[in-house]
Amino acid sequence: MKQQVIVVGGGASGLTAAIMAARSGASVAIMEHTSKPGKKLLSTGNGKCNLTNLEQFDDAYRSSYPEFIKKARKNVTVDETLQFFRDLGVVLTDRNGYVYPYAGQASAVLDALLTELNDLGIQLITDCQVTGIKTDLTVMSSKGKKKADAVILSAGSMAAPKTGSDGSGYDLAKALGHRIIPPLPALVQLRCREKWYKQAAGVRTEAAITLKLDGKVIASDRGELQFTDYGISGIPVFQVSRFAVKGLKEGKQTVIDLDLFPAMDYKETRDFLMERKSRFGQRPAKEFLNGVINQKLIPILLQEAGINGGNTSQITPTQIKTLAGALKGLSTVVTASNSYEQAQVCSGGIDTREVDPDTMESKLLKGLYLAGEIVDVDGICGGYNLQWAWTSGILAGRHAGRGNG
User: Distance between CA atoms of 175 and 262, rounded to whole angstroms?
Assistant: First the structure.
C-alpha cells in the first residue's frame, strides 16, 4: 500500500513538498485553509517571482542556529532547484544572478506547480482549516479527520496575512511539543522618531545604512533608500530590519546611521564641501547643497549643521565638518517596524534544534516534517526566502514520500 502523506499548507514549500512526495511514490493530499493555494507566491518579486539567486552565501540566511541552514542547504543545491522548475516546464532567465521565470509572471510558476499536482493525482482540499494533528498523525480539520503515514507542516508564518499566513501552524507545532521562537516581522519598513520625515517623504536616494543596537554595529547594507512620512524603507532597510525589530523587542536603543553620500568617505566629503564653499561663496547658504543631494533633504542637513542663513562664504569650518558628518552619518532613532501586514517574511518560528536538517523530519515526532517559513529560517531579499521554500519542501517531500525518515 502506498505511503499516505498529508501536506498542511499550500504555499511554495507545501506545493513543492507535495510534488516530491508524490514523485517518491506516495499518495498525497494537500489541506489548504484558503480558497486558492499559492497566494503569497503570486506577490513575490513584485509579481515577477524571483525564484532563487545563483549567488548563495551563508549570510543570506538567518536563524537563531545558523548551522542548521548550512546543513540543510548542502542537501539541495541551486542547480537542483533550477532543474526542478525546468522539469515542470518553466523557462528561466538569469538577471545578474537573480533567477526569474522568462514569462516575467509569478503566475507562470504557480500554474506549473498546480499542473504537476494534477498530473501526479495529488488531492487538493481548499477552504480546509486544520485544527489539530495527533501524535498518531491523524489530521483533524474542518472537513473531517484523516490518518496519514507522514504529515508535512508547511503552514507559513505570520507575514502578509492577507495571503493566508495567519500563524495557525505555530499552534499546531506547539501542541506537538515543538518550541516556537517568537515570530517577528522581517523584511519590513522601519518607523523612526525624527519629525523631519514628513518633510523628506517620497525621496529615493542611494545610501549606505548602518544599524546599531546600544551603540554596537550589528548590520549594514547599501542600495536605494526610501523616505516615508514615518521613517525609512527600501531594500537596504529590509535587509537589516530583522535585527532592528529584534533589538526593539529586547529593549535596546536602536539607531540607524544614514550615509547619504556613500561614493566618498568622510575626508573626501569634507574636502569636497570646502572646495564647494570656495567656488560658490557668493551663493545663499540655503543653496549650498543644490545639485548635490535631493532638494527635500537639503534643509534637514543644513539644520543638522546649524547653517541657518547668510551666504555660503559665511559657513564656518566647524559647520563644514558637521555637515560632512551629517551627509555621511545622519542618525535616526528607530521606534518600531510596520506590522505583519507589510512584512514580507518573519524571523522566528519552529526551533531548528528540533528538526533534522537532512530530512526536515521532526526530532520529536517520527513522521512529522516541517517546511518553509514556519521554521526559524529567514533570508535577505533576492530570492533567498523562496530558495528556502524549495530546499525545505524538496527535502521534506522526498523523505516523507519514501517513509524512511
Answer: 49
Distances (CA, A) of 255 to 182, 235, 262, 276, 324: 23, 17, 18, 30, 19
Burial call 330-343: b when 16+ CB within 10 Å, e when fewer? bebebebbbebeeb
In 3D space, the residue among 352, 58, 295 whose CA is nearest the CA of residue 180 turns out to be: 352
d(CA 333, CA 191): 9
SS3 47: helix
Q: DSSP for 363-395?
A: SSSTTEEE-GGGBS-EE-TTTHHHHHHHHHHHH
| N-to-C CA span, the chain | 18
What would the pLDDT profile of 173-212 be if each residue is shown by its tens digit?
A: 999 999 999 999 999 999 999 999 999 999 999 999 999 9
Q: Report whether 382 contacts 100 (CB < 8 A).
A: no
Measured distance CA(333)–CA(256) in Å, rounded? 7
pLDDT of residue 45: 81
Strand partners, 191: 231, 336
